[in-house]
Write a structure and sequence with these properties.
Rieske Iron-sulfur Protein, 9 helices, globular, Naphthalene 1,2-dioxygenase Alpha Subunit, Chain A, domain 1, 2 domains, 21 strands, alpha+beta
Length: about 400
């Protein structure tokens, strides 16, 4: 039965924890608060150490809080992160997304910096500053960085935040046995999508959307035990889905996978979602890592990385690339469907206007695969950081 306008706008008949107000996805004030209260204070994956293979190699990184960072491997082999800003006049130092530089030179006034962030040269320093300025006082602004959990380089803008290990806690315990060998990125892709970053993470956080994927319907969903997989929430907003074996050879064109992952059962699949917008996805022979970087309330940049083992032979690497591209890469069977799904949600929720006032997170299936406990757990953590109710962010409860 269809609903009139008043019925459509009425609050769902569920507990407040089981739905959210869609203005969480569209309101500019909420987005600015998310940047300040969440992204400024949490650990975020900037890149993988294999993307900085040698000293002086760097990558620039658009941080979800809106900051422009540099991640550079030092002459001692340690990756460090800095604001991509010259301390003299606030000019951007590096414009290329990646490269190698023994010295970072600001094009504005030719100030120079080394790979450890030290200022090494000020053009006409004595003539202009006499003895009033010491180069030791104008080094680059450093950002906390740590390498871990598969060789990823994590950054945190908050100097006083807890350590990376405290932030992750036990969330990656199911994956850690499979992250002990050195990894290497073989695929990098970024996509800008007209949607809110949380809608992408929502999709990664619930498997009810497997009905959207033809490939998943004819493989994983047909396997014994699929609906019994446990969904486990962890502190700090993280959640993980237990492993299962997916028999990909039941689908035409998927037979003959000769390469697997050390210690993982053939066809094994483990997924971990990390707050506020990162996903580890290990399937059969490939790890895919998603990082959602909001550009605004209605636009998100998603970085996708495909990783294999650093020790792979050429044949093993080719097999992993084939597996990745066949199913999980940009030309595979799943990713474009996910992007289409969140873009469809985004068109209904943008520009401060929503065609739907509420989004339900109300499925309960005893914390198994189609239970939306992962999304409820995520928004409980969101609420803790934001000091707002996801279902009543503007304190209007009791009104339609």
């Amino acid at each position: 039965m269809s609903r009139n306008a008043a019925e459509w706008a009425a609050r769902p008949k569920f507990p407040a924890t089981h739905y959210v107000d869609t203005r969480l996805y569209t309101d500019p004030q909420i987005f600015r608060e998310e940047q300040e209260k969440i992204f400024d204070r949490t650990w975020i994956i900037a890149c993988h150490e294999s993307e900085l293979p040698a000293p002086y190699d760097y990558r620039t990184f658009r941080h979800p809080a809106g900051k422009n960072l540099i991640v550079i491997r030092g002459d001692d082999g340690e990756p460090r992160a800095f604001y991509n800003i010259c301390p003299h006049r606030g000019n951007v130092l590096l414009h290329d997304p990646a490269g190698s530089a023994r010295s970072l030179t600001c094009i504005f006034h030719a100030w120079t910096f080394d790979c450890r962030g030290n200022c090494t040269g000020i053009a006409r320093r004595k003539e202009g500053f006499q003895e009033r300025l010491d180069s030791r006082d104008v080094g680059l602004r450093q950002v906390r960085a740590a390498v871990g959990y598969g060789g990823f380089v994590w950054v945190n803008l908050d100097d006083d935040a807890s350590d990376l290990g405290d932030f992750i806690g036990g969330a990656l315990e199911t994956l850690e046995p499979f992250l002990r060998e050195p990894l290497e990125v073989f695929h990098y892709q970024k996509v800008v999508v007209s949607t809110n970053y949380k809608l992408w993470h929502d999709t990664n956080s619930e498997f009810y959307h497997d009905y959207m994927h033809y490939f998943n319907r004819v493989t994983g969903m047909q396997q014994p035990g699929y609906f019994d997989r446990r969904y486990t929430p962890y502190p700090n907003g993280h959640a993980a889905v237990g492993s299962m074996e997916v028999k990909y050879d039941h689908y035409e064109g998927s037979a003959g996978r000769a390469v697997g992952w050390p210690g993982l059962a053939p066809g094994g699949w483990i997924l971990v979602d990390l707050f506020p917008g990162m996903t580890y996805n290990l399937r059969t022979s490939v790890i895919r890592l998603d990082t959602a970087i909001p550009l605004g309330p209605n636009e998100v940049l998603i970085e996708f990385r495909g990783l294999g083992l650093k020790r792979d032979s050429p044949d093993e690497r080719q097999a992993r690339v084939r597996d990745h591209n066949q199913i999980w890469g940009p030309f595979g069977r799943n990713l474009h469907e996910d992007l289409l799904g969140v873009t469809g949600q985004g068109t209904a929720m943008r520009d401060g206007r929503t065609d739907s006032r509420w989004v339900l997170h109300a499925r309960e299936e005893n914390q198994t695969i189609h239970d939306e406990i992962g999304m409820r757990h995520y928004y409980a953590e969101w609420s803790r950081y934001m000091e707002r109710s996801p279902s009543d962010p503007f304190g209007e409860r009791g009104t339609p």
